[in-house]
Specification:
By secondary structure, the chain is of the alpha+beta class. It contains seven helices and eight strands.
Length: about 325
């Protein structure tokens, strides 16, 4: 008579231990996958800035050393609209041919507003190269009719500029006219890379009651790389300020404030802000997108005037950032790698 061996199964404790180990391994795997994805997004962001900087150099090489104007103040704009940075074409449009997007560039009629029926389709073209892929999807990446309806500038209703149902992509990379918007632009020590060769106020002869104002600064005077006397490798050309036109804060809370009036709007238009606010903001990076640089990395990427891309950590202090922003301040600063 044979006795069969009794098969021993898992105890409840053993089963729970195995499940716990598998859960830990899965969590570690998910963390590794997320880390790899973010590393890929950061690489894409850095590459975007690199390509844009190289495109600006190509433009400069064919324009006797000049960069594009910050934004155009001489375009004929649609009836009822004012000459304002996000109502006229900006410098990003001029990078399209070097970025191998000549066909898109040729679709624009530069004698008209970016929102003119002849231009709105091209203005609404998605432009991933001007947006950081690390910015969460719940952050608005476009402006539409409702976005313009929230703006009050010069007592004008701008909601009619964008047709209903059209969403126009915004941008995450910008340049600056001055290091700090509290600083005097007449002082060369405060001027940034995009400061034009001639800064002047002039009268456009626009009826104040219709257009909102008559005096403003001519931003379409082209800047020159030769004016960057601090050194091309020591001066910021373009950097990250993500989430335009939403106002983002250090706690990364979901934004609810549309600051298109002071931050900017569609990618094809001009930058809305001239400089950083080094007076009312404690930190220059990732604290307040309206006053400083901002991204969803632990710092921001910046393309220097020589085309190199560097990373500025969140711990970078105001004096370092301001020194990197000025083109002729004479500061001595160690450029991050």
């Amino acid at each position: 008579m044979y006795r069969t061996a009794k098969r021993r199964g898992f105890t409840l404790v053993e089963l729970l231990v195995v499940i716990f180990i598998i859960g830990v391994l899965v969590a570690l795997l998910m963390m590794a996958v997320q880390s790899a994805r973010e590393a890929a997004r950061r690489l894409t962001c850095s590459n975007n800035l690199k390509q844009i900087a190289l495109a600006l150099h190509v433009y400069s090489d064919t324009r006797r050393g000049y960069l594009p104007g910050y934004w155009r103040t001489h375009d004929k704009v649609s009836e009822g609209a004012v000459n304002h940075p996000f109502l006229t074409f900006g410098w990003r449009v001029e990078t399209l041919p070097p970025l191998e997007m000549q066909n898109l560039y040729d679709q624009f009629d530069f004698t008209r507003s970016p929102y003119d029926p002849r231009n709105i389709e091209a203005t609404a073209t998605p432009m991933p190269i001007f947006q950081c892929p690390s910015t969460p999807r719940d952050i608005s990446r476009f402006v539409d009719k409702a976005s313009f309806a929230e703006i009050s500038f010069g007592q004008n209703d701008w909601s009619g500029l964008i047709p209903k149902g059209v969403k126009v992509p915004t941008f995450d990379y910008r340049g600056y006219l001055t290091a700090g918007w509290q600083e005097s632009p007449d002082d060369p020590r405060h001027q940034a890379a995009w400061f034009g060769a001639d800064w002047r106020n002039y009268d456009m002869g626009i009826d104040l009651t219709i257009r909102g104002y008559t005096q403003f600064v001519a931003f379409d005077i082209p800047p020159r790389l030769v004016d960057v006397t601090d050194g091309l490798s020591s001066t910021v050309l373009i950097t990250e300020e993500v989430g335009v036109p939403t106002h983002l804060f250090a706690d990364r809370a979901e934004p609810s404030v549309n600051r298109m009036d002071s931050m900017g709007g569609p990618w094809a238009t001009g930058d809305g802000r001239n400089g950083l606010d080094n007076i009312y903001s404690r930190k220059p990076i990732n604290e307040n997108s309206l006053r400083g640089l901002y991204s969803f990395h632990p710092g921001v990427y910046a393309a220097m005037c020589d085309g190199a891309v560097v990373f500025l950590s969140e711990e970078t202090e105001w004096p370092v950032v301001m020194a990197l922003m000025t083109r002729a301040g004479g500061e001595r600063v160690e450029v991050p790698k």
